[in-house]
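Exercise (ungraded).
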Amino acid sequence: MSFDVNKLRSQFPILATSARGRPLVYLDNAATTQKPLRVIEACQNYYLKTNANVHRGVHYLSEKATQEYEDVRKKLTKFINASSHEEIIFVRGTTEAINLIASSFGSAFLKTGDEILITAMEHHSNIVPWQLACQKAGAKLVVAPITKRGEVDVAKFKELLSQKTRLVSFVHLSNALGTLNDAQTLTRWAKEIGALVHIDCAQSVSHLPVDVQNLGCDFISFSSHKMYGPTGVGVLWGRKDILNKLPPYQGGGDMIRTVTFEKTEYADLPHKFEAGTPNIEGVIGLGAAIDFLNEVDLKNIHEYESELLKTAIMKLSKVPGLRFIGEAESRASVISFVLEGVHPHDIGTIVDQQGVAIRTGHHCAQPVMDFFEVPATCRASLGLYNTASDIDSLVEALLTVRKVFRR
Amino acid sequence: MSLRELYQEVIVDHSQNPRNFGVLERAQYQGNGHNPLCGDRLTVFLNFKDDKVSEIKFQGSGCAISTASASMMSESLLGLTKTQIESLFDKFHKLVTSSLDGGNDSNDSGDLGKLEVFAGVGEFPARVKCATLAWHTVMSAIKGAREVAKTE
């Protein structure tokens, strides 16, 4: 395997810094990943050499910026195996992508009595936009339950699909539990009854190859900053025939063909959904992140991280009083846990003092916390640059937590 | 070491064995507190006799800092008038935020007695809200506010 973690680490300047006087151990990749130098340089170079607005001027810089921006769309087309670059819509992030679908699909197609099906392990951003759309249309938000292991109850999921189900939206890889859903099967069942399918790929896209043809769904969404790219940009992919039927999400410049006070003719895809000056720097930085991921190869990343995840689970299970929240058969990257008798918030503070960055809280998935009857969990989430030594640092920090609490 | 300052023995003790933990049926004053960031929830119950706190209890779930703060606060408030509670709240607030303001006026916090153990919280800006949740809740209770006290 051509996967050299030390060589990869050296491409991330921040990993050589320290936190609280200790070498930084960054295990909060589900919140955001660090950026390799080439991504940082791509953003910088845009401002140093290419800064101009896109799709407008005929001058040299504008043409260059437009080309760099549109090249990233083509890279993404290949990256997720979309059938056309017109299916790649740049947005601010996964949240905006889901709001776009919920709002456009909801206003055009959702009617009283219709249903939208989600699962009980969704991030708030895959709950609230659908609630809003359902409220407006008088439709019903239906939730497929999860099991104590943190897996979708697939039998119930199937049962809840009906002729009323217009759209199904579920997470590929859970940010709160680490569960990797069988997206192909869930999609197939939903398509059988004629529902549209959106898959939230915010977590999965940096850990394993995501192929939209293979998944068989109609929409996916993901964020640049969770895949080693800059913040503030994300992607909505949708099938061209469906995107063509949806009304615009926002109006403004760039998304029009002709405007009069009486009538506006919208631009073709993808520009119809990209009103206003986009995050050009972010898109160009995302392009550099895609190049990086392609070079390392997501198959290698998945293989490496799966091994590391096994090691981490094995090492953490030896910490006295530690209980995992979410023990799905199929999982990736994310480990959620609690320590007996110690609140996750205190754990977060104490491990931070050892230079270890983990997330503590509800992970924007309060219904998941309610289901497991915990106020919050600790979450360690792996990136391609993490090592077994990072896990050792976390274990050591957790043992310190126990000492502080005399346990 | 600052970790030891934050999690002093007395704080750990109060977090593991909170005093005055429970419910006061038909309390004269009741306040609900919520820290949305970490999910801490707290209810404080107070009874007054001759204008002074005669009974106080609290219930809820939270981190060690918030539980210990509620427990130790409940002990300090017994026998105080509303005005005295307000003045103690100000002093406590100054104590836990002093390092945020530049750390010059930490001596102005006055005689907080046992509550001085929370001085270390000031070095952990993310934890100030944990230490003050119970206090904000009591303030909202005695002011008769109907809204849930929030730390933000």
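Further reading is listed at the end of the chapter. For now, observe: Chain B touches chain A through 21 residues (CB under 8 Å). Residues 2-150 of chain B form a domain with the Sufe protein. Chain: A fold (CATH 3.90.1010.10).
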